C-alpha cells in the first residue's frame, strides 16, 4: 500500500495541493498554497443561476489555484479528462499501481463517506486517491479528519456527475516537483494577482465592486422578488458563504493566515498586520451570515431588515477595499 500522509485542511483544492506536494518533499501549508494561487475573490452573477438562484462565489474559480501554484513553484503536472468511465478507471488503476497519489475532481453528492446532509450537487470537490485495498480505493479527502475508502461504482459516479462543471473523470498528479523553492517571487505574484482581481476588474460583478453590487440587490430583494424568493436568494448567499467548501468568511481567514505566514517568512510586519485586519473582515462576514439567517427564518421580515443587511455588506466592501489597497502597496 502506498504511504500517504493525510492532513485535514479547510478547503479541498488548497488542501490537495498541500498534501500532494508534501508527499513529494515540497513543504507548503494550505494557506500558503491558497495565497500563492490568489484564491481569494468575490463574485455575484445574477444572470448565472445555480439551482434556480443567482450564483455567489467567495473564491476564484475551481482549478485556478492549482494551476497558478504549479506554475509559480515550477511543479509540472499531468492532467487528464476522459470520454468514458472505463477509460478513466483504467488510467487511475495504472497510476496508483505505480504508487503515485492521484488528485481528482468529483461530485460531493456521490461520495458515500459524507453524511447525507452534506451531500449535494457540487461538482468541483477535490480529493486524492492513493491506493486500493480489498476492491475499494483509499481516499485522502482533505476535509475529512482521517483517510477513508470508496467503492469503484461510487467513485465512478462522482467522477462523471452531470451538471456544471462536469468533472469528466478529471485526474491529475505531479511528474516533476522541485525539492526547494524560494517563495518570495511566488508570494509577490500571488498578492499582485489577488489585489488586481479584488480591486481592478472593470465590471461591477467582481471584487469589492461585486460586494457593493450584491448589497444593492439584497436591499431590493423583498420589493423586486417578493418575500418567498427574497428569502430563497438570501439563503443561497449564506449557503455559498458558510457551507460550500470553506465559505466566504473561511476564505478570508485563510488568506489572513497566508498574509501572516508570508510576513513571518519575509520579515514584513505590514503583511502580518494586514493579516490581522483581514481576520476582522472575516468576522464581519460571519456576523452578516448570522443576521441574514435570522431574516430568512423570520419569513415575514420587512424591507428594513434587508436594508440593514445591505449596509452590512457595504461596510464589508469598504473594509476589504482598505485591506487590498494597502496590500497592493506593500514592498518586500
From N to C, what is the helix and strand string?
Answer: HHEEHEHEEEEHEHHHHH
State the share of residues found in helices, binned by percent. 40-55%
Spatial arrangement of strands, main beta sheet: 3-8-4-5-6-7
Number of domains: 2
Q: What is the number of helices?
A: 10
**Percent in strands:** 15-25%
Structural class: alpha+beta
Q: Which ranges are low-confidence, i.e. pLDDT below 50, for 5 or more consecutive residues?
A: none
**What is the CA-atom radius of gyration, in angstroms?**
20 Å
Shape: globular
Task: Calculate the terminal CA-CA distance, rounded to whole Å.
Answer: 44 Å
Output mean pLDDT: 91
Task: Tell me how many strands there are.
Answer: 8
How many strands, which pairing sense, and closed or not: the largest β-sheet? Answer: 6 strands, antiparallel
Amino acid at each position: 500500500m502506498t504511504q500517504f500522509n493525510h492532513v485535514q485542511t479547510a478547503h479541498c483544492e488548497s488542501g490537495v495541493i498541500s498534501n500532494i506536494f508534501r508527499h513529494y518533499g515540497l513543504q507548503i501549508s494550505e494557506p500558503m498554497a491558497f495565497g500563492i494561487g490568489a484564491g481569494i475573490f468575490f463574485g455575484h452573477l445574477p444572470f448565472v443561476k445555480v439551482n434556480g438562484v443567482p450564483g455567489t462565489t467567495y473564491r476564484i474559480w475551481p482549478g485556478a489555484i492549482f494551476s497558478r501554484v504549479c506554475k509559480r513553484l515550477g511543479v509540472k503536472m499531468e492532467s487528464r479528462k476522459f470520454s468514458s468511465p472505463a477509460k478513466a478507471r483504467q488510467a487511475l488503476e495504472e497510476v496508483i499501481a505505480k504508487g503515485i497519489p492521484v488528485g481528482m475532481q468529483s461530485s460531493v453528492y456521490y461520495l458515500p463517506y459524507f453524511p447525507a446532509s452534506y451531500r449535494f450537487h457540487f461538482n468541483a470537490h477535490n480529493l486524492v486517491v492513493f491506493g486500493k485495498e480489498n476492491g475499494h480505493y483509499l481516499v485522502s479527502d482533505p476535509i475529512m479528519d482521517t483517510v477513508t475508502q470508496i467503492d469503484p461504482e461510487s467513485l465512478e459516479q462522482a467522477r462523471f456527475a452531470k451538471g456544471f462543471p462536469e468533472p469528466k473523470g478529471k485526474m491529475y498528479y505531479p511528474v516533476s516537483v522541485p525539492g526547494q523553492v524560494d517563495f518570495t517571487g511566488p508570494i509577490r505574484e500571488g498578492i499582485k494577482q489577488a489585489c488586481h482581481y479584488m480591486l481592478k476588474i472593470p465590471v461591477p460583478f467582481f471584487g469589492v465592486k461585486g460586494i457593493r453590487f450584491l448589497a444593492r440587490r439584497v436591499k431590493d430583494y423583498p420589493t423586486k422578488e417578493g418575500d418567498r424568493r427574497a428569502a430563497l436568494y438570501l439563503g443561497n448567499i449564506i449557503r455559498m458563504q458558510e457551507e460550500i467548501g470553506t465559505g466566504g468568511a473561511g476564505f478570508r481567514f485563510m488568506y489572513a493566515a497566508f498574509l501572516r505566514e508570508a510576513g513571518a517568512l519575509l520579515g514584513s510586519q505590514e503583511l502580518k498586520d494586514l493579516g490581522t485586519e483581514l481576520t476582522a473582515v472575516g468576522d464581519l462576514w460571519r456576523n452578516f451570515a448570522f443576521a441574514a439567517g435570522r431574516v430568512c427564518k423570520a419569513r415575514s421580515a420587512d424591507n428594513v431588515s434587508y436594508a440593514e443587511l445591505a449596509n452590512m455588506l457595504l461596510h464589508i466592501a469598504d473594509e476589504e477595499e482598505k485591506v487590498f489597497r494597502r496590500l497592493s502597496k506593500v514592498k518586500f
